Amino acid sequence: MSAAILSALRERFGDSIAATHNYRGDETAVIAPDALIEICHFLRDESPLAMKCLMDLTCVDYLGREPRFEVVYHLYSPTLRHRVRLKAPLTDGEDPQIDSVTQLWHSADWYEREAWDLYGVRFRGHPDLRRVLLYDQFVGHPLRKDYPKERRQPLARRAPAPDEET
Amino acid sequence: MIDVKRIERHRLGAERSFLPSVARGMVTTMRHFFENLFARRETETLRYPEERQPYPPRFRGLHRLMLRDDGTLRCVACMLCPTVCPAHCITVEAEDVGPGPEKRARLFEIDELRCIVCGLCVEACPCDAIRMDTGVHAPPTVRRAEAVYGIRRLSERGGRSIAVQGGAPDWRPR
Amino acid sequence: MIERRTLAIGLPDWRELESDDQLPTEPLRINMGPSHPAMHGTVRIVITVEGETIVGADVEVGYLHRCFEKECEAATWTQIFPYCDRLNYASPMLNTVGYACAVEKLLAITGEIPLRAQYLRVITGELSRITDHLTCNGASAMELGAFTVFLWMMKAREWIYAALEELCGARLTYSWVRVGGVATDLPSGWIERVRRILAKVRRAVDDCARLLVDSRIFRDRMEGVGVISAERALSYAFTGPQLRSTGVASDVRKDHPYLVYDRFDFSVPVGARGDSYDRFMVRMEEMSQSMRIIDQALDNLPPGPILLDDPAISLPAKPEVYNTIEGMIRHFKIIFDGIKVPPGEVYGYTEAANGELGFYLVSDGTGRPYKCRCRGPSFVMISALAGMIKGGGVADVVPTFGMMNYIGGEGDR
Q1: Which CATH code for domain B64-154?
Q2: Residues of A with CB below 8 A from C236's CB?
């Protein structure tokens, strides 16, 4: 696809765009988290961009790198059929936070709840930030790289079966 | 331009009385009834277990270990199948076979309860030592331990293999 | 004479009330729990009703969360295929095809996949799409009382499952697609059998349509129920039949063609009002279009290899493994190390039965993904359900939820 999106972003938000790339054809911009809301408004409301859909919002845990977390947004315009990926690295260490984009796209609601649930990223301004996939009593954020895959947190403990090793 | 087909929504005319669709429905279902009664075209019911659905040749079922011509296991304990198994249900331990280059499996266990029946172990085996073409499901057991199949139970159905020991001289496709 | 107390402090005695409207009421919270015949994929909806009208709803998912992403981080790229089969379990082939396309995009080998493999992926993918729509429409019809339609659609689905079982060895857990192509070629006679099956499926679907489509009972229950506007649907990132029912003509197969979809002549059905009836009809029509695609693909299926022959990516043929040392080494390296995907990230998307199935893959250069995010279309669409059922009756929850086709496997992952 054309690089018009990235050049429009760079032109308007030069300082907040840390890097851009087009690896395998996916236009990507690494942005400063503080500029997220402005950039998202720009991408959604400007008519040559018209990113009416927030297709995906997820988080990546780069344990051992600083900034550790990166929130990734995939935006799509169904009318103009172009996409862009925004990546916002979070530098808040143990309690990463970023602004919520629920005001702009309804789909952000549950995606942000999922990112909170599984990664522990807090979204400022989210109307109802609670766990969505895991149960409320769950402790920890399991998709973080330092959460061991083998850990079990059963909610209801059962007696072992007669032939089961305890 | 995308080729779009708009869904039509017909105005309900005489249909508002419910009766036309009753008539249409009865005609359709009675047609099925008489077709099944006389032509037996699409009655799918099988009188199990006397009649069974035949499984296709590629059906993935219970594992079996293949044997060499002298009756020993083909398995050389190369560890490819435990590595590739996504469910980690295969346990293999190797032992030396004495003079000669090969090892063999001292212990080969598959926990059929953990197995997800994906067939990656069959794809991985470089000796045609394991197959899932037995055509039966892993039978249910009362105790978990009974579902862990060892060499004896796995090789009960083992037989002639397509892999030729030492390489077939004429394997190249012409 | 029995003394009756007033129901609330400050209100007149019940004998002095002039009409029932003055009776104090409070909304009732009902749990349509995860263990419920109509809540497919185990979803819990806590609805707040006043009388029969829903005034509030809280949709709770996650009962089928099976840690797909975490497991994928510990598995090689090939070991993830059995996991992908279990995402949308009504149309498993589309998930594995989508994942394979995403990995191939990351490897930049999309243009090198053998043509026959691409055709086979399209054929089996469209067969899976038909099974998904049969399941969704059949189950929803059953919940409205049309049990016959359900059984006929399940019978049709069984024929398709038998064809795919003959090809892959299993009815649902295919593990047939591989990075670079597909694992095995067609058994002999498969194409003729599939053509016969499609003729039978077409007849079965036509019979089901004859029973339901213009029936006043069905229309009354589905029309105007669960309405969502196109703008709201886009804001909720709706995709697939749910979005097309609102009037937006958006289909990944047409907008961003992948595999060989650009070679086929097919239409995209689009609704008008965004209600449950439109979603049902869009799915019925999509089944016909899928059958059109399969017919064209079977007619033009090219001969050739089914797997890209690249020593870094795909396993060699078994005779080479048994008989040559190079084949053996290539085989060992790919299985022990996994496919070495260069570091980078990609978002690969395809049109699954429920909408855009996206895989956001991050690779760190090893044989295992650093992150394998599955963007299941159902997850975000079911978040719109709360707004769609407000104002309706409790009985309207059933067709609305049914037609949203929440598949727990891809929603909760």
Answers
A1: 3.30.70.3270
A2: 105-107
